[in-house]
Amino acid sequence: MINVIKDSIKALIVATLLTIIYTLVVTMIGQAFFNKQANGSILTIHNRSIGSKLIAQPFTEKKYLWGRNMIIDTNLFKTSKGQTILYASASNLSQTSTQLIRQVRNRAAIIKKLNPGENNVPIDLVTTSGSGLDPEISPQAAFYQAKRIARARDISIKKVNKIIKNNIVEKTYGIFGENRVNVLEVNIALDRISK
């Protein structure tokens, strides 16, 4: 019995030490070699945090590129001071759900109305992602919105398309994933030329 207790204590000590050592080593590697990513890939302008490159931001003004649809809950979380914390999630609706089909049709109608002259609405503008937090959209979805953005900012569509094109990220290693555009980075670039 005493041997079992001794072995249990030894195992607990080893597990605790390994947990602490592992955490410290991974944190040091992250801070040394992947500092920006380890700290959330926060984008700043004039020493002011604008947002994370890794998490979607809810843009709704016509002058901005819009990302994927987000389901945002403003009631779930509040700080100790009563400030609302945005909480986004996926819809969890099945692809055959009549509710989802109705939502997609409604969103498509709204997007078409706000982007006159454009036809087929890209799917990523009317559906949520698996996490509800994807910061990127397809280049097709970005170019689809170019006319609206150019009109709202009173700049040429050519300038908007150039900014979008300059922010296209190719497939990882040329084979993984899809080409994509980071919505926040495009909007920051749009704000720079509009000033």
From TrEMBL:
InterPro entries: KdpC. Its main location: membrane. One of its GO terms (cellular component) is plasma membrane. GO terms for molecular function: ATP binding; P-type potassium transmembrane transporter activity. It is a single-pass membrane protein. The chain crosses the membrane at residues 12-34. It comes from the Bacteria. Keywords: ATP-binding, Cell membrane, Ion transport, Membrane, Nucleotide-binding, Potassium, Potassium transport, Transmembrane, Transmembrane helix, Transport. Belongs to the KdpC family. HAMAP family: KdpC. Part of the high-affinity ATP-driven potassium transport (or Kdp) system, which catalyzes the hydrolysis of ATP coupled with the electrogenic transport of potassium into the cytoplasm. This subunit acts as a catalytic chaperone that increases the ATP-binding affinity of the ATP-hydrolyzing subunit KdpB by the formation of a transient KdpB/KdpC/ATP ternary complex. The system is composed of three essential subunits: KdpA, KdpB and KdpC. This is Potassium-transporting ATPase KdpC subunit. It comes from Ligilactobacillus ubinensis. The lineage of its organism: Bacteria, Bacillati, Bacillota, Bacilli, Lactobacillales.
